[in-house]
Amino acid sequence: MKKVIVLLLLAVVGYYLVDVFSQISFGENRYEGQNVRDFYLDKSKNDLQVSNSVTAIVVNFRGFDTLGEVTVLFLAATALGSILYRRREDAHGGVVLFSASRIVRAGSHLLFAPILLLGAYVFIHGHLSPGGGFQGGTIIATGFLLMLLAYHDYKVSHGVLSWVESLAGLTFVFAGLGGLILGKTFLENFLPVGTINYLFSGGIIPIIYIAVGFKVGAELTGVLYTLLNEKEYKKQ
Amino acid sequence: MSILLVSIIIMAILLLGAAIYAVIQKDLLYAVIATSIISLILSIMFYLLQAPDVALTEAAIGVALTTIIFVITIRNTERYEDKKHVKVGNKIIKK
After folding, report:
1. Which residues are CB-neighbours of B48 under 8 A, at least 6 positions away?
2. Which of A34, A47, A230, B46 is the residue whose CA sits 20 to 30 A from A77?
3. For chain B, which domains are there?
4. What is the pLDDT of residues A4-34, one digit of tens each?
């Protein structure tokens, strides 16, 4: 009975998929004339003065989606922390990690600052060059991961991480509300856009991407720190 | 054929090989390293196909973060896919 229902549901889904996709002819050029793509490319270059149109779409035209993505990441990090919390409290015994050799430790110390710098560069120049807040944030998290792996007693303050994360999230939301108050819609650009290819251009896009970079970096660092510093579970 | 096309075809074959290896390997640690190699090749392919944004994300998340999270998980659980296999010396044999 259960299998029949599953098959029926699959048949219904399959029917509508085939129905939708059969109306779109394969390989046809559907991008003639003025449409959404041209609108985005034209707007991001002329109105917003942003040279990376991917960033313009992700942060400005579809900024609300990005806010949702950031929220999903935040919820995932919170859920992981709450699942592992009990276990961290109950655990006895040593940490999972052991210290690396002197060469690895010295090398990680040398590489740590350049990795953080690269991450910061990627998210500050999100509107000029490839990359953005998510990419820069993950690069920063990999820098912290290197330090956590090299030094088994490397400490990251959960308090500082939550402050950074909350302030970055608030910056994003307030940048959006500013558009609602000073303009017409949520996340509308209300700052002067400047000249294309300059660092101070693009209105609220750099502000939001810097906030996203800090938020993603803090969240992923917190996730890694929680996972790596979980005490070994003592078997009864 | 251009150099770009040839290199993309070679990388696609390598990617498929690594993927099949990850599926059939019984030692989960080796399988995780194979998935990390998949991400590495994939990020080079994204770069060659003019998507540097995606290449950056794939390199940071796929190669570094996902791999380390899987390695930590394997460390805290079981290393082998089923309990029938056990490691003796350098070989994985059936019990």
Report:
1. B4, B7, B8
2. B46
3. 3-94 (1.10.287)
4. 999 999 999 999 999 888 877 776 666 666 6
